[in-house]
Amino acid sequence: MLAKPKPNRGRKFEQVCNGARDVFLRDGYSGASVDDIARTAGVSKATLYSYFPEKGEMYREVLMDEIARVATQNPIRISPEASADEALPMMTRQIAAWLVSGPALQIHRSSVAEAARFPEVSRHYYTTVTAQLREVVQGHLDRWVAAGELSIEDTDLAADQLIRLSGALLHERALLTCTPGAREAAIRQISDSAARLFILAHRDRDSLPISSARQDGARRDKPSRAVGQ
């Protein structure tokens, strides 16, 4: 099967792509009209068609480029020397804030909505944005496992789980209500809880601080009160 020819990259190519990107991400593929795209891009329909004879070609081109651009903006910024206890709360907050940001939400929504019509675009999203974020998280988990701070059998799976824990409720709510962003307090509450759960699930009991171990022991040894006492 012959590959489709690349669109003509003339003087107004970037202008057309920028306008198309704004309309596609706002209205989706079906809701985007050529008239709206031409108006937003500030070009005539004839100019638009000179670059992209079909709307599908335009969608594929601009979404592929946008996905590649978003993939370069990895949200995780933590010191490579930071311990798991220090870094995980920061990491989960950064992931949660990114998951509810405008660009990440728009790309995710478009990739899911058009997965059947443009499977190659959705695959590109999964193998760039999703996979690269997971790769960065996994790299830190591998480091903490090697240092004996965490005990994880499958860091690839654990990285996926941590990302989903970090944005629990927030990401789904933002996707379904089409309202990007979230209050800092909500991000901190959910992401901090995710970090605590993850650490408790993957830390060896022998590595728990003495104070924590004593508190756990005290809770176990404390007699339970009968109902009504």
What do you see in this structure?
- This is TetR/AcrR family transcriptional regulator.
- Residues 210-229 are annotated as: Disordered.
- Keywords: DNA-binding.
- It contains 11 helices and no strands.
- Helix 1 crosses helix 4 (55-71), helix 1 (13-31) packs across helix 6 and helix 5 crosses helix 8 (155-166).
- It is mainly α and 229 residues long.
Task: Present the secondary structure layout.
Elements: H1 13-31, H2 34-41, H3 45-51, H4 55-71, H5 84-99, H6 102-113, H7 119-146, H8 155-166, H9 170-177, H10 184-202, H11 210-221
Give a quick precis of the structure:
This protein has 229 residues and is mostly helical. Helices cover 69% and strands 0% of the residues.
Tell me what portion of residues adopts beta-strand conformation.
under 5%
> How many β-strand stretches?
0
Shape: elongated
| Helical fraction | 55-70%
Query: How large, in whole angstroms, is the Cα Rg?
Result: 23 Å
Oligomerization? single chain
Q: Indicate the mean pLDDT.
A: 84
How far is the first residue's CA from the last residue's CA? 78 Å
Main sheet properties = none
Number of helical segments with 4 or more residues: 11
How would you spell out the order of helices and strands? HHHHHHHHHHH
Structural class call reads: mainly alpha
Q: Note poorly predicted spans.
A: 208-229
Q: Which key terms come to mind for this protein?
A:
mainly alpha; elongated; 229 residues
